[in-house]
Amino acid sequence: MGATALRNGPSPVPAPIDSIVEVRGISKTYGNVEALRGIDLDFPRGKLTSLLGPSGCGKTTLLKIIAGLIRADAGTVAINGKRVSAPGPERAFVFQDFALMPWATVTRNVAFGLELRGTNKAEREEIARRYIAEVGLAGFEDKYPHELSGGMRQRVGLARALSVDADVLLLDEPFSAVDEQNRRKFQEDLIRLRTNQNKTFIFVTHSIEEAVYISDRIVLLSPRPGRVSQIIEPEIDRSGDPERIHRDRHYLDTVEEIWLGLKQYVE
Amino acid sequence: MTLFGYRVPMMASLLVWCVVWEIVGRLDLVFLLPPFSDVLAAAVGLVQTPSWQSATVTTLRAFAMGMALSIVIGVPLGILMGRVKIADDLLGMWVNIFSSAPLSAIVPVLMILFGFGEQTIVAAVFLFAIWIIVLDTRAGVRHISPSLIEMARSYGASRAALYTKIILWAALPEILAGIRLGLIRGVKGVVIGQLLVAIVGYGALFETFSRNFRMAEFWALTIILFAFALLIAELIERAEAKVEYYAGARQ
């Protein structure tokens, strides 16, 4: 039994020193469709990790299992070393379709997580206002979701996730229902937010460009059954002008490399 | 009796029909149809009589009690059916049968069960109104976006919070629509119940007027009932308009 035998196939990379989310042997089957098989992953603290893959690779399922919204058939998820199987205050979710309450104002929507925790009204509205400003929606506190554009609605969803002060933010294709211009702006803001907030982000996307643009680490999943096929850590300097990244050589090379890897799964 | 919304055009055409009624009435063709002005005069006289006033109190009380019961039971039942598959499988068939069955046929049975009094009327209102409330509530709950429920769960909502803060509100437009339709059916229930029992409230009055061929008062009472049904439907519609903005915006 040599080390080479263990390295066969798409085995996980060695665990980083400080991983906040540990996924071990997660499997999930829907009827007779095997969505995920034996997923082992570690998510390093304070980094943005993307789950990237073609549709049907189970990336959203995996994210929802981490969130505790879907129960896995096998395997465990640990946050800060503690096993979890239900939603908890250390995780906050951002939904693809925003999932805002249409009968509530922006402020109440953003404060909703705190409302559920029993934070008093004055305090939670104060916190909500701060995060509404943080995501660039100052002045829209008393508007209703239907009065906002798609991009603005998702900013409300992001502010809601930030306001509960969770360690891990789980984002399920947050920009897929947002138009192209807003998406670009939003991605830039997310890069800025990451440096300010010092949180761990797990980000599901099907866009290679998006993943490379914003991620510290990209987990490529292959479909049917969903398995980890590759882990990439693009070394892109995001400190300067975010516009520059799109022309960065390393950015372009990484996008190309991932595309070549995924091509086989696309009919 | 089930005349919905569309206030302005209906009022305009209503005027035309009032004029036609007046003319036909004055021509003295059918003795069942006195001129409209006589009916109006009868209405003014009628509302001043103690018998009308006490009948109205009785009728309104039975109506309000029947409606309150059907809302208090119907909305939770609809939510239960919308959320729990077993409840839906068990009850769905019956709710659908009752919502489209000719319920007037059951009112005599109610008389046997509840006697010749107000209880029968309350039961009739309940029986007429509840099914559409259950069905609409169920439909509203079914249409709630699953991600809204996942959102509440992921932010740690308790079961009680999930129902009171999300499900009830998200289904509110359909619940109100169900209540509006239920109110209209409830008016039917109260009238049919009273006509069959015939010794309570408006039923007794209708009985007296038609037996004695007091047609002007008979029609006056009918018009008052119609106006009442329209008025409450209109009031609920106002409330519905307030939540309408998000019925469309939900998604």
UniProtKB/TrEMBL annotation, chain A:
* Domain of life, source organism: Bacteria
Which GO MF terms does the UniProt record name? ATP binding; ATP hydrolysis activity
Q: Where is the ABC transporter domain?
A: 21-248
**Key word tRNA-binding present in the record?**
no
Q: What InterPro entries does this protein map onto?
A: AAA+_ATPase, ABC_transporter-like_ATP-bd, ABC_transporter-like_CS, ABC_transporter_ATP-bind, P-loop_NTPase
Print the keywords alphabetically: ATP-binding, Nucleotide-binding, Transport
Give a yes or no for keyword ATP-binding in this entry: yes
State the similarity comment: Belongs to the ABC transporter superfamily.
**Protein name as catalogued:** ABC transporter
Task: State the organism of origin.
Answer: Mesorhizobium wenxiniae
UniProtKB/TrEMBL annotation, chain B:
Q: Does the keyword Transmembrane apply?
A: yes
One Pfam family, please name it. BPD_transp_1
Chief location of this protein? Answer: membrane
Protein's membrane topology: Multi-pass membrane protein
SUPFAM superfamilies for the chain: MetI-like (SSF161098)
Tell me the compartments it is located in.
Cell membrane
**Stored InterPro entries:** MetI-like (IPR000515), MetI-like_sf (IPR035906)
Name all ABC transmembrane type-1 domain ranges.
56-236
Transmembrane region positions?
6-24, 60-81, 93-115, 121-141, 162-183, 189-206, 218-236
Q: Which PROSITE patterns match?
A: ABC_TM1 (PS50928)
Recorded GO cellular component terms are: plasma membrane
What the record says about family reads: Belongs to the binding-protein-dependent transport system permease family.
Q: What is this protein called?
A: ABC transporter permease
Organism of origin is Mesorhizobium wenxiniae
